[in-house]
Write a structure and sequence with these properties.
Radius of gyration: 25 Å
CATH superfamily of the largest domain: P-loop containing nucleotide triphosphate hydrolases
Number of strands: 8
Helix content: 55-70%
CATH class of the largest domain: Alpha Beta
Order of helices and strands: HHHHEHEHEHEHEHEHEEHHHHHHHHHH
Structural class: alpha/beta
Number of helices: 20
Largest sheet: 8 strands, mixed
CATH topology of the largest domain: Rossmann fold
Distance between the termini: 26 Å
Bound molecules: guanosine-5'-triphosphate, magnesium ion
CATH architecture of the largest domain: 3-Layer(aba) Sandwich
Strand content: 5-15%
Strand order of the largest sheet: 3-2-4-1-5-6-7-8
């Protein structure tokens, strides 16, 4: 997600870390680099210029706080201004209530409803779905299927033609549930008819949240759409979908931010786990290579990985023991790529063959092989010679070639982790300094 934007910003910051000293010329160049990167991400030119002007002004005027070099100070300013630039941290409703989803055709409403339902389910609030999209018969089926996939009750009748009637029955039916999610009709454009229908629905449902789904690939145009819905229907937040696979997400985010309607969630894939609460601080941290330690720890917690393991990996210590913990948790935690993407100093885009999470069979065998290793071998795999490989293979019912492949993969990963979290990662050191990362 947003690889170009990320590499552009990282490169601009890397130049600062390499500059001899900070002067007007260096700052001008930084401003230009950032502008160029933002424009390529479809950010509005005036917004981008205002941002870089602010950064330059602050960098020239403000004195570095104690213990911080001028270079570090500039990076800190860039980071702070970028965080402000993408909006405020949203509030996510964490008590029982009703959420109504609205959005144009194909914007990702129904999928996002599934994601949000799952999000609440994981956090102990019981969701139930109501389908009010009476215009497209297939919509009701889609919602019901989604609901059964995550074992959530759903009321989506195909024979009732009045959305208010559906709502009435649905709300009555699901009185005992915590989070009632309503799927409303879409249109190809926001017109008077749609506005009227949605308003009526909202008047009856009295939702605590009205979430508008907007696809991020709209770029800057997302802002206008958000504004239109805000004025005509009223929304409490935005679910920005399809952030994966678009270079224009930066434009979508910043244009939404100025409408004053907070982005609450972002969708990063078609699967129901591909949802994130939008957090400007963490979002920018990840984008510029500070990493997202908090996100990493949360994911780890969900997957029951010990914080100790995460800590070791972040510090660049990566023995077979950590590798083993990772293999064990990969299914629960999602792809290794997305986990590593949260680590300070690691590139967002990792080599293709780096992600073996899909090769479940292989992982299982590797797990057995590691279980056959001695404590000493796990801590110092370099001692594993041909005869040890033979023994491990025999003990775990795997092939010797599989054990060797495991060792090779482990070694690649160890090198990569060491390279990025070791002394070379100036940005990651700064991240620790600025943000007081404590693990
Ligand atoms: N890559 C990606 N695809 C998404 C995401 N969210 C939704 N989609 C896809 O977008 C398409 C449309 O999604 P729906 O959830 O059916 O959209 P909708 O707004 O309910 O559509 P209508 O009910 O037809 O108006 C589907 O193919 C989804 O899989 C996302 O975050 N990333
Ligand atoms: Mg739909």
């Amino acid at each position: 997600m947003l690889e170009k934007l990320s590499s552009g910003l990282k490169e601009a910051l890397r130049k600062i870390t390499k500059a001899g000293y900070i002067d007007k010329k260096v700052l001008d160049e930084l401003a230009k680099d950032i502008q160029r990167t933002l424009l390529a991400g479809d950010v509005d030119i005036i917004l981008a210029q205002n941002l870089t002007k602010k950064i330059e002004e602050r960098a020239l005027k403000e004195k570095p706080p104690k213990g911080m070099t001028p270079k570090e100070h500039v990076i800190k300013i860039v980071y702070e201004e970028l965080v402000k630039f993408v909006g405020k941290k949203p509030e996510i409703m964490m008590r029982p209530g009703k959420i109504m989803f609205i959005g144009l055709y194909g914007s990702g409403k129904t999928t996002s409803i599934g994601k949000v339902a799952k999000y609440y389910q994981k956090r102990g609030l019981r969701p139930a779905l109501i389908g009010c999209d009476i215009h497209r018969p297939a919509a009701m089926d889609q919602l019901s299927q989604l609901a059964s996939q995550i074992h959530v009750p759903c009321y989506a009748p195909k024979d009732v033609k009045d959305p208010i009637e559906i709502l009435k029955t649905g709300l009555e039916k699901f009185k005992k549930y915590d989070i009632i999610i309503i799927d409303a009709s879409g249109r190809s454009a926001l017109d008077k008819d749609l506005a009227e229908e949605l308003k009526k629905l909202a008047e009856f449902a009295k939702p605590d949240e009205v979430l508008l789904t907007i696809p991020a690939d709209l770029g800057q145009a997302a802002g206008e759409q958000a504004k239109g819905f805000k004025e005509l229907v009223g929304i409490t937040g935005i679910f920005l979908t399809k952030m994966d696979g678009t270079a224009r997400g930066g434009g979508a985010i910043t244009s939404c931010a100025i409408t004053g309607a907070p982005i609450k969630f972002i969708g990063t894939g078609e699967k129901l786990d591909a949802i994130e609460v939008f957090d400007p601080d963490r979002f920018i941290s990840r984008l510029i290579g500070f990493g997202d330690i908090q996100g990493l720890l949360e994911k780890a917690k969900e997957a029951e990985v010990k914080p100790e393991t995460v800590k070791k990996i972040v510090e660049g210590k990566f023995t077979i023991n950590e590798f083993y913990e990772q293999i064990k948790s990969i299914q629960k935690m999602g792809s290794l790529k997305s986990i590593l993407g949260m680590m300070p100093g690691l590139p967002m885009k990792l080599p293709k063959d780096f992600d073996v999470s899909k090769q479940e069979e292989k992982m299982k065998k590797w797990k057995y092989a590691i279980e056959s290793m001695t404590k000493e071998e796990r801590e110092n795999p370099r001692i594993i010679d041909a005869s040890r490989v033979k023994r491990i293979a025999k003990g775990s019912g795997t092939k010797e070639s599989e054990v060797r492949e495991l060792l090779k993969y482990y070694e690649q990963m160890r090198k990569m982790i060491k390279m990025f979290s070791g002394k070379r990662g100036m940005i990651s050191k700064l991240a620790k300094k600025f943000k007081g990362f404590k693990l």
